[in-house]
Write a structure and sequence with these properties.
Layout: H1 18-32, E1 41-46, H2 52-65, E2 69-74, H3 85-95, H4 106-111, H5 122-137, E3 142-147, H6 154-166, E4 171-178, E5 188-192, H7 197-207, H8 213-223, H9 227-232, H10 239-242, H11 256-267, H12 271-282, H13 300-309, E6 313-316, E7 320-323, H14 326-335, H15 338-355, H16 360-364, H17 369-385, H18 389-402, H19 406-420, H20 425-438, H21 446-458, H22 464-478, H23 486-502, H24 505-517, H25 529-534, H26 542-551, H27 558-570, H28 578-588, H29 594-610, H30 614-628, H31 634-651, H32 654-668, H33 674-690, H34 694-704, H35 712-715, H36 719-730, H37 734-746, H38 754-766, H39 770-781, H40 790-806, H41 810-827, H42 830-840, H43 844-849, H44 860-870, H45 875-882, H46 886-900, H47 908-914
Parallel strand pairs: 1-4, 1-5, 2-3, 3-4
Antiparallel strand pairs: 6-7
Helix pairs in contact: 1-2, 5-6, 11-14, 12-13, 12-14, 12-15, 15-17, 17-18, 18-19, 19-20, 19-21, 20-21, 21-22, 21-23, 22-23, 22-24, 23-24, 26-27, 27-29, 28-29, 29-30, 29-31, 30-31, 31-32, 31-33, 32-33, 33-34, 33-36, 34-36, 36-37, 36-38, 37-38, 38-39, 38-40, 39-40, 40-41, 41-42, 44-46, 45-46
Domain HTH luxR-type: 858-916
Keywords: DNA-binding, Transcription, Transcription regulation
Pfam family, one: AAA_16
Length: 929
């Protein structure tokens, strides 16, 4: 049996429990008299220190006086997972007796390990125990007494429940249960409430009859009717204090014994109850109903029930809650884990953001230093909820200066540093340094590792390896979090960013193992549960994205908005998030977080580029550089370069592409940030495609990922798929083109979005011939929403027209080629215009529409080939670029020589310059219908 809770000897010392003792007597009398019914079972319920074990001791003494046998057991956490551990305690005396050796108890002996044999099931054990006890009860009435039934192993609990249901004659069952814990109902349930003041006084006087009156009153007030507190508190005082020779303490602390009981009780509460108590400990005067919204939609009063039941708190009126002992407030805060304290402050911050942040003077008036610091921290979180991240950082720094405890100061500085890593990297670096000075071990905590990793991964002097190591170790050490653990969600998000930026397959595999080790990604506000798992693999489904987008509003956390927007980007739905992304940019301009705003800018610009709106994309990028260019975020530097290079690829600005790619690779390669190198390759691929340089297209494609394997880089690609398939055909590798299209089909690329379906159909058409290809091209152009992506439509029209011309449908080729040249011209894509015009130039209709030859008598194709040859390209290279044979190139050059009056390619450059003919000379009027 567990340690006696009040250390009383003899029933005479039990005060205020007459009703309970009478009920015990009734149960024992019913058993000794052989009376049947429910009256032979009793469950005693009480909170810490109320005397549950004392009442069981009373029952044992009274049963012994009635000449009853007693079989006792006590539940314990360290044995609760061991099958039949409780039954072993109960039945050991019988198993050691002669009656216990009878064959009827074989199942029991096997279950408890005293005999060999196959393990019996629960019903067999219950029947055997019943038979064993029935045999024993025929000789002597017996009391089964079990302390802390809820800590008994499940198998033993099931047998005890079965015995209660069988109502064996001459058997009494008395158990104790901690208040607030679910337990089987065995007979009558009797609660142990607090003692009255008079009863507490009698108990105190019995142990300490000569206490100084003021001290006696203080002890009674502090004990709140708890028998253990009444008896133990005087023992925590000095002899001089008990005699009145020293002043009474301002607040009498609980004894270590009662404090231990209280701490165990708090630890056993459900997670939402502990969260509620954590917020109450910070803001004890707040109406309980204010906490409803931060408890997952659950009524706060319902969440409070376990704490009410075990005597930790009480309701004051209909709206407020009060701890029954002032010290419990501190115990709730001190007993919480770092993650629980973090969650309590953030959750209370969400409440304050709605209900109103207290004035600084009100916070400063709080007498308790830890609670004053906690309220300042919660106010800072409320400020963050309202969009002022800079104010939140200042508030967290202020909270850290109030509470000088190293661990708490470091925790608050870590939180401030993490927020600052999205606002001002210089401030974040300073806070990380201060954090480590106050607590050198903080790097091993999840919040400390998160702060350090955020600074290490977001600045220009990026150390991805250190960030990855710190985060992975801290997340695994943190262990399983609750579905709403925001600290774990942030750490997983940061690890995901580091793994994504690295682009290393081994890190991505380790990321998935880490997620599995901690039980998966937290819910993070119920918005991004799926996105947290799927974005690295491109496996987010459109219906899930639609649901997530529908849940975003103006109060959604910026990080969650970016996650949803990333998910939207994977299904080409960024446009649905435009309002929320532009709001993030506005917030950053007004004391909000900068990193989410940079992401928002880049995603919107990427969407603009995909739609061919290069001017709008450039405007967004210019604003970002102007506003945040000096902040030192690597994301802004290479991200803007990546989008500018894509814009330049669209409009044919080779110098801009070269400069952007040079800067990106110079930063990324030493840091092994392979994703940035991949982004540079995308821009170079797009530029090469506009020049019809198939060799470079295929070379840069392999930097994104092996063609045909469809890795993570290809899942998020769009137009590049068409470029690769077309380039493979141009270099005489139709097998490579088919392999890539098959990979697109196998990985479900065509079902991701209407845009992907359009591209997939066109890619399939490129590897087919005849009517099948024509059907797929037409199906691609007829896809709903196709007009939203004019760049893709123009490319498909160009490919369609080229296919028709090569299949001798020259007249039919005019329409798609004409549409393509018009679209490219409207978008400002001059290199594409020249490419399509060259294709049009091969048709008789095109020559008529374009108004005949250019100055010097050259056709458009002759001019283009002549310019390419003048630049130093070989006939073979020109043929690959233009998708024609080397012999055809030679024929066109021969005609050009004759028309220009020269004998070899050595005179081409001078002849063209003499006529004033350059690339711009090929621009004739756009054909009309």
């Amino acid at each position: 049996m567990s340690e006696d809770e009040s250390a009383l000897s003899g029933d005479a010392g039990v005060v205020g429990r007459r009703r309970v003792i009478d009920r015990i007597d009734d149960v024992l009398l019913a058993a000794t008299s052989g009376i049947s019914g429910d009256g032979r079972a009793l469950t005693i319920v009480g909170g810490p220190g109320t005397g549950r074990t004392t009442m069981l001791d009373v029952a044992v003494r009274r049963a012994t006086a009635l000449d009853m046998d007693v079989l006792a057991a006590s539940g314990a956490d360290d044995e609760s997972a061991e099958p039949y551990a409780g039954l072993h305690q109960l039945l050991l005396p019988l198993l050691l007796s002669r009656a216990g050796e009878q064959t009827g108890s074989l199942a029991v002996r096997v279950a408890l390990g005293f005999a060999p044999g196959p393990s019996p099931d629960g019903r067999q054990v219950a029947d055997a125990v019943s038979a064993l006890l029935a045999d024993h009860l025929a000789h002597r009435p017996t009391l089964l007494v079990i302390d802390d039934l809820t800590r008994l192993d499940a198998e033993s609990t099931g047998v005890v429940e079965d015995l209660g249901a069988r109502r064996l004659s001459r058997l009494a069952i008395i158990t104790s249960v901690q208040a607030g814990r679910a337990a089987p109902l065995l007979g009558t349930r009797l609660a142990l409430g607090p003692l009255t003041e008079a009863e507490s006084g009698r108990l105190l006087d019995a142990g300490h009859p000569a206490l100084e009156p003021r001290l006696r009153s203080a002890i009674l007030a502090a004990s709140l009717g708890n028998p253990l507190a009444v008896r133990e508190i005087p023992r925590s005082l000095t002899e001089d204090q008990r005699r009145g020779l020293q002043p009474v303490p301002a607040q009498i602390a609980l004894t270590s014994r009662l404090a231990r009981h209280m701490a165990e009780t708090i630890a056993d509460l459900p997670a939402d109850t502990r969260l509620l108590l954590g917020m109450h400990a910070i803001d004890p005067d707040r109406p309980i109903g204010d906490f409803d919204d931060v408890l997952g939609g659950r009524d706060a009063l319902v969440a409070a029930l376990p704490a009410l039941g075990n005597g930790l708190v009480e309701l004051v009126g209909a709206t407020r809650m009060r701890c029954l002992h002032p010290v419990v407030l501190g115990m709730i805060a001190d007993g919480a884990t770092r993650a629980e304290r973090d969650l309590a402050h953030r959750s209370l911050g969400a409440v304050l953001a709605v209900q109103g942040i207290p004035e600084p003077a009100t916070v400063d008036a709080i007498a308790s230093v830890p609670r004053r610091a906690a309220m300042r921290e919660a106010s800072a979180e409320a400020t963050r909820h309202l969009g002022d991240w800079r104010g939140a950082i200042d508030g967290l720094e202020a909270a850290a200066t109030i509470d000088a405890r190293p661990a708490e100061r470091a925790r608050r500085l870590a939180r401030a540093a993490y927020l600052a890593a999205s606002v001002d990297l210089a401030v974040a670096s300073r806070l990380v340094t201060e954090m480590r000075l106050h607590d050198p071990t903080v790097a091993g905590t999840l919040d400390g590792a998160l702060a350090i990793a955020a600074v290490a991964s977001r600045g220009m002097l990026t150390d991805l390896d250190m960030a990855h190591r710190l985060l992975e170790e801290a997340i695994v050490d943190h262990g399983h979090g609750t579905p709403d653990d925001p600290l774990l969600a942030e750490a997983i998000g940061e690890l995901r960013w580091v793994c994504w930026l690295s682009g290393r397959d081994d890190w991505l595999r380790a990321y998935r193992r880490t997620l599995h080790a901690v039980g998966g990604a937290p819910r993070a506000g119920r918005l991004t549960r799926r996105a947290a798992f799927g974005l690295l693999d491109g496996e987010v489904r459109a219906d899930e994205v639609e649901a997530a987008i529908g849940m975003v509003d103006d109060h959604t956390d910026p990080t969650a908005i970016i996650l949803v927007a990333e998910a939207a980007a994977t299904v080409d739905r960024v446009a649905s998030m435009t309002h929320h992304l532009e709001r993030l940019i506005e917030l950053a301009d007004d004391r909000g977080p900068v990193v989410p705003a940079i992401w928002a800018t880049l995603m919107l610009a990427d969407d603009d580029v995909g739609r061919g709106d290069f001017a709008r994309a450039e405007q967004r990028l210019d604003h970002a550089i102007t506003r945040w260019g000096s902040a030192g975020f690597n994301l802004l530097s290479w991200g803007v370069d990546a989008q500018r290079a894509r814009c330049a690829a669209g409009v044919g600005e080779a110098v801009v592409i070269s400069e952007c790619v040079r800067r990106m690779t110079a930063w990324a390669i030493p840091r092994r940030a392979h994703r940035v190198v991949e982004q540079a390759a995308r821009a170079e691929l797009a530029s090469a495609a506009s020049r019809s340089d198939a060799t470079v297209v295929l070379e840069r494609a392999n930097a994104i990922g092996p063609i045909g394997e469809f890795g993570a880089g290809w899942r998020t690609s769009r137009s590049a798929h068409l470029d690769v398939v077309l380039a493979a055909r141009q270099v005489g590798r139709p097998d490579l083109a088919r392999v890539h299209v098959e990979a697109m089909t196998r990985n479900g690329f065509g079902v991701i979005s209407p845009r992907c379906r359009m591209i997939h159909l066109a890619a399939q058409a490129l590897v087919l011939t005849g009517a099948a290809a024509r059907y797929l091209f037409e199906a691609a152009l007829a896809v709903p929403e196709a007009s939203q992506w004019p760049m893709d439509v123009a490319r498909i029209q160009y490919s369609f027209g080229a296919h028709l011309r090569r299949n001798h449908a020259v007249a039919h080729a005019r329409e798609p080629l004409t549409h393509a040249v018009r679209l490219f011209d409207e978008l400002g894509c001059q290199e594409w215009v020249e490419l399509v015009r060259a294709e049009l130039d091969t048709t008789i209709v095109a020559r008529e529409v374009l108004g005949g030859p250019i100055a010097g008598g050259l056709t458009h194709r002759e001019l283009r080939i002549a310019e390419a040859a003048a630049s130093g390209m070989s006939n073979k290279a020109i043929a690959v670029q233009m998708g024609i044979s080397a012999r055809t190139v030679g024929n066109h050059l021969h005609h050009a020589y004759v028309k220009l009056g020269i004998g070899s390619r050595g005179g081409l450059r001078d002849a063209l310059q003499a006529l004033g003919i350059g690339a711009s000379a090929a621009r004739a009027r756009i054909p009309t219908e």
